Amino acid sequence: MSPSTERLAPLDLAFWHLESAGHPMHLGALALFDPDPGPDPAHGQDRPPPAHALLALLATRAAAVRRLRSRVRDVLLPVGGAVWIPDPDFDVTRHVHRVRLPGDAPLADEAVAVAGELMERPLERGRPPWEMYLLTGRPEDPFGVLVKLHHALADGMRAVSIGSAIFDEIADPRGVRARARARLQGAAAAPGRPWFSDPGRFVGVARDRIDDLGRAVGVGASVVLASRLDPRALPPSLAAGTSGTRRLGTAVLDTEDVRLVRKAFGGTTNDVLLAVVAGGLRRWLDERGEPLPADGPRALVPVSRRRPGGPIGPGNELSAYLLDLPVAEPDPRTRLDRVRRAMDRNKEAGPLRGAGALAVLADQLPPIAHRFGAPLAGGAARVLFDLVVTSVPLPRSELSLGGCPLRSLYPMAPLARGHSLAVALTSYGGGIHVGLVADGQAVPDVARLGAATARELAELVAATRAG
User: Fold this and answer.
1) N or C, which end of the chain has less CB nearby within 10 Å?
2) What local confidence, expressed as pLDDT, does residue 314 receive?
3) Element (H or E) spanning 387, and its range?
4) pLDDT digits (tens, 9 = 90+) for 423-455
C-alpha cells in the first residue's frame, strides 16, 4: 500500500457500505455567526466581511486539511476493503458553496430550514465525501455555515477536530491545530520492526488475535441478547418508515440551569440532558395527541472509545449504551432518577454489552462482511433501538470565522434506516445546543419538539427551586 493511502478501519467501512440514496450516512453541523464587529476603514463603521471573502476563507482552510482532499477507493485485497487515497482531481470549489437566503425571516430560521433540505442530499461518493455551505442573507445580517462529513470520514470527536481547523483561533498554525497535528502524527507512527521478525512479538500478536476472537464472540452474544424480536409499539411519528426527506429542529438549553438540576438531583450532566430529551418527547407526543409508549422508546447513546487527552486517530472509535427513555413517567424528577440509575447500570456493565456494542463488533469483522452484510445490518437498526441521542464535545474557547464570533452551533446525527428522529447535543458559549434531525414526512413539526425540550428543562429547574 502506498504511503499516501490509508486503509478504512472496519467501522468506517461499515458506515461507508450502510449508505443508500434514501439513507445518507453523513454527520452535520450548522454554525451561526454574528457580523464582524471590526471597523470599516473607509467609513469608520462596523461591517461584516463580504460573502466572497468568507467563501474564499472557508475554501482555503478546508483545502489545507489533508483528510478533506482524500476520497475512498475499493481495493482487491483484502476482499471487500477500501482505502483513502489523495484525489488527483481535487477541486475545493466542488465542495464549498454559497446559498443566498431570501431574507424574509430571521436568518436562524431560514438557515435551519435550508440546512434540513441540504442534509437530504447524499454526498458524491466519487469525490472526497464532505461539503460546506455558506448561508448568507443581507450583507449586514448574521450568516451560517453548514458542514457535512460522511460518517466514514469522522465520528463526532474526529468531526470536531476536522471542523475546528476552519475557525480563526485553531486555524493558526501556532495554536491548537499544530498540537492536534502532532498528536495525529504520533498516533500514525509505525513500529520500527515488523511483528513477524520478532518471535516474542509473534507470540504476543497471536495471543492478541485469539483474545480479539473471544471478545468478538462475547460482544456478538451481547448484541443478540439485546435485540428485540418483537419491537415495542411506538407512537406513529417514531415508528414511521424513512422517506429520505429531512427537517432540522433546534433548541438552546442554559448550561447553568442544567448544572443547577444536576447538583440538586445527582447524576451527570449527560443524565440530566437525557432526562430532558425524554421529557421533551413526552410533551411533544402529548401535544400531537399520540399515545405514550409504555416502555421506551429505546435510545442508542454513543460512547467514544478514545482515551481522554489521547491522540485522535483517523478512524471511528465508538461504542454505545442502550437506554429506555422513560417517556411514560409523568414526574420529571422521577424521570431523571430512572435515567440516572439506568446509565449507572450501563457504565457498570461497560460499553461492550448490549446492542450498542455492534460498533465494537464491527471492528472484529473482515471487510467482505461489511460489504455484503451492510443491507442486513442497516435493517437491523429498527430491531435494536428507536433513536440516537448523542453528545458532541466542543472546544471551551470562544470561536470565530473571519473575525465574526460564533453565536451557536447545532450538531446533526444521521438517521438510521427505519428511524425518524436523531438527537445531537453540544455545549458552547453558556448553552447546550440541541440539533434534531427528523424525517420530513414522519416529523414535519420537529421545531415543536425543540420547544418542548426547552420547556422540559424549565420545569426541572422550577422543581429544583421548589425543593
Assistant:
1) C
2) 55
3) strand 387-391
4) 999 999 999 999 999 999 999 999 999 999 999
